[in-house]
Design goal:
By secondary structure, the chain is an alpha+beta fold. Helices cover 46% and strands 14% of the residues. Bound molecules: flavin mononucleotide (FMN).
Length: 404
């Protein structure tokens, strides 16, 4: 009997050992299946390498650069019509952010970013560019209007003039990690401010430790709380988060957990949870990150325009952000848009509510003549961020686009 017990205990333990091996094996298999060991690899990331390999494809080379630009929620709201001597850029309004971006203002900022990457890359490819940007006024209710032309680049052959900024195109990353908290030299701000020569645009900085910086941080947290408490905004934001590794590799879009600025162990856990990430987790991260991110930033920044819903100024403001971020990449700065405050300004305006957030922003800038359209943080990096997914040029180029 005692012997039997011993045997059965041994068998039991052996059986348990087998189960642990099976469970661990299944865990490793699921981890591999969910890309735990493959961050930054797969079809959604080939565009980051393709842009160098495809240097000699004529005008299409510029599209390879354009698609690496920043865009709100990584929506990549663009379609390109590429001819021998001309590229037309269209807004793909089906890829809108709903209540998060009711005027398509952020969409147009992202399109401006794509324009800037093309302009920066053009010299390296031996092109001079004559650029025309769309005019008009952004308004609500433009989502799902198909394709709207926003820019035409007329190309002529020119001497090859490689630009330093072009080298930064494949290395630029939105950095959502903690920064070091160290101050930046004064010259960093003067040089960044000098990247703007457009009278309709302004870049404003608020250094950590100042009252305006603290107001900026508190306003960003309040903006995040507002978004989470507004069911439509929270829903329309969450809709762009990939639901799995495979879903991300297929859509090649959206904010993916590998770029959330969290450590590898947490990324692995989130990836392995079926249906990841949960809306509650995303909402809670939005609020805590808004606080945490500014605790270690060197400064907060604003890109402002003269007229908040002017199409042309919004596109140019997007260009300016992309230029600032490319320049920052060359200087090894860490940078991240934190656009909660302008997003709430749009939402309050759309709903006809008193413009409390607009007033709050005005109090920070102290100048009603400038309308903040884009807010961000800057500092020094602690971790090298991963690339975000991208749809390659083949998926976003159409000849003879049917648009307005
Ligand atoms: C208009 C605009 C608004 C953005 N707002 C935010 C934001 O509030 N928070 C954030 O973390 N990233 C924001 N981003 C950054 C995008 O999420 C990012 O560009 C996109 O995910 C692609 O990643 P990448 O910039 O690393 O290529 C914004 C980008 C743009 C162009």
């Amino acid at each position: 009997m005692a012997n039997n017990n011993k045997i059965s205990r041994r068998n039991f333990l052996r059986g348990l050992g087998g189960m642990v091996v099976v469970v661990a094996g299944a865990g490793v298999w699921r981890a591999a299946d969910q890309g735990v060991f493959s961050a930054g690899a797969g079809p959604a990331f080939t565009a980051w390498d393709a842009w160098r390999a495809d240097m000699n494809e004529g005008p299409l080379s510029l599209v390879h650069a354009a698609i690496l630009a920043a865009s709100p929620h990584n929506t990549q709201p663009w379609i390109f019509d590429v001819q021998e001597e001309q590229i037309d850029l269209y807004a793909d309004t089906t890829r809108h952010l709903g209540a998060m971006d009711p005027y398509l203002r952020e969409m147009y900022l992202g399109l401006g970013c794509a324009v800037e990457n093309m302009l920066v890359a053009a010299g390296s490819h031996g092109y001079a560019v004559d650029l025309s940007l769309a005019e008009g006024e952004l308004s609500t209710g433009q989502g799902d209007r198909g394709f709207i032309k926003v820019a035409t680049l007329r190309l002529t052959q020119a001497d090859v003039q490689p630009s330093a900024l072009a080298a930064a195109i494949p290395n630029r990353r939105t950095d959502r990690y903690d920064y070091t908290g160290d101050p930046l030299p004064e010259t960093t701000y003067t040089q960044m401010t000098a990247l703007n020569s457009d009278d309709d645009l302004a870049v404003l900085f608020y250094l950590a430790g100042t009252t305006a910086f603290e107001q900026f941080q508190a306003g960003t947290v309040a903006g995040a709380e507002y978004i989470v408490a507004d069911p439509e905004m929270a829903h329309d934001s969450f809709a762009w988060f990939p639901t799995s590794w495979d879903n991300m590799q297929e859509t090649k879009s959206g904010p993916y957990i590998d770029t959330a600025g969290v450590d590898p162990a947490l990324r692995a856990v989130v990836k392995m949870v079926p249906g990841m990430p949960s809306m509650a987790a995303v909402d809670s991260a939005l609020v805590t990150d808004a606080q945490r991110h500014f605790d270690t930033a060197s400064a907060a920044g604003i890109v402002a325009v003269r007229s908040l819903y002017d199409v042309n100024q919004t596109l140019r403001a997007g260009q300016l952000w992309q230029r600032l971020h490319l320049w920052g990449t060359l200087q090894n700065l860490a940078m991240q848009p934190h656009n909660e405050m302008p997003e709430v300004v749009d939402r309050q305006s759309q709903l006809g509510l008193p413009g409390e957030m607009a007033q709050y922003l005005n109090a920070i800038t102290g100048d009603e003549g400038w309308k903040p359209t884009f807010t961000f943080r800057v500092g020094l990096p602690t971790v090298a961020p991963l690339p975000s997914p991208r749809r390659p040029a083949q998926e976003v180029v159409r000849s003879a686009v049917q648009g307005t």
